Amino acid sequence: KAGVTQTPRYLIKTRGQQVTLSCSPISGHRSVSWYQQTPGQGLQFLFEYFSETQRNKGNFPGRFSGRQFSNSRSEMNVSTLELGDSALYLCASSTIAGERYEQYFGPGTRLTVT
Amino acid sequence: GEDVEQSLFLSVREGDSSVINCTYTDSSSTYLYWYKQEPGAGLQLLTYIFSNMDMKQDQRLTVLLNKKDKHLSLRIADTQTGDSAIYFCAESLSTVSGGSYIPTFGRGTSLIVHP
Predict the structure, then answer these.
(1) How far does B40 lie from chain A, in Å, by closest CA?
(2) Does the structure show a pLDDT above 80 at A99?
(3) Could you identify which of A39, A94, B12, B31 might form a hypothetical disulfide with B96, taking C-beta atoms 3.0 to 4.6 angstroms apart as the criterion?
């Protein structure tokens, strides 16, 4: 079974631009969640999508948005980039298999804002 | 507010047991998680425990939960050099199957295993 894939793996953008990151979950997983990891703030939860609906949302400004498609693939968008948005963005796909909760992460997209 | 705290570093000798500790403040937390992150990689969910449990064992990993003290620990038996990584503790009201999956993470504990 293929793992969670994220594209692109590395990205350099300029302040004020916008960026779209993509995440393809494990086949059959309907939940996709996004996280931001920075040295200063650590790991923070952005949002979670299930069946094309945003089900949970962390404490991030409206510049951060996302969506999920019918095939469960998800994208997140950051508009009007700021230097502080430089981070590793991780996505994870999850499912409940019987009584067991499973969650698998992608390798992340490293975003650098200059 | 919610807060999860961990010590930053732990150094152990190969073959010894490692114990990584975590404290959390949200008494309504229902799920507590341990994640592993190796250099340059994403996260790996190692194990999780539901708050009505005291202990969970999975091969070399043992999770202990003291709900009264809001203290969670991860014990790694027979620690190997391949266990060197950053370990994150996290808590949430539910898993992604529920409507309150908003995890809060600790800052991570760097485990260094000496040969």
Answers:
(1) 8
(2) no
(3) A94
Secondary structure class of A28 (helix, strand, coil): coil
Residues B77 and A31: their CA atoms lie apart, in Å, by 32
**Mean pLDDT of all residues in chain A?**
94
Q: Where are the beta strands (DSSP E) in chain A?
A: 5-7, 10-13, 19-24, 31-38, 42-50, 53-57, 64-68, 74-78, 87-97, 100-105, 109-113
CB B74 within 8 A of CB B14: no
- pLDDT tens column, A15-40: 999 999 999 999 989 999 999 999 99
Structure tokens at B74: 């991860």
pLDDT attached to residue B95: 65
A104 token code pair: 């698998």
Q: Does B102 touch chain A (CB under 8 A)?
A: yes
Nearest Cα to Cα of residue A35 among A4, A57, A61 = A57
Neighbours of A105 (CB within 10 A): 23
Q: Is A42 in contact with B95 (Cβ distance < 8 A)?
A: no
pLDDT band, very low/low/confident/very high, at B5 (cuts 50, 70, 90): very high
Contact flag B105-A56 (C-beta cutoff 8 Å): no
The alpha-carbon gap from B32 to the nearest alpha carbon of chain A, in Å, equals 12
Reading the block at residue B28, the tokens are: 């309504």
Q: Yes or no: say if B44 and B36 are a contact pair by the CB < 8 Å rule.
A: yes
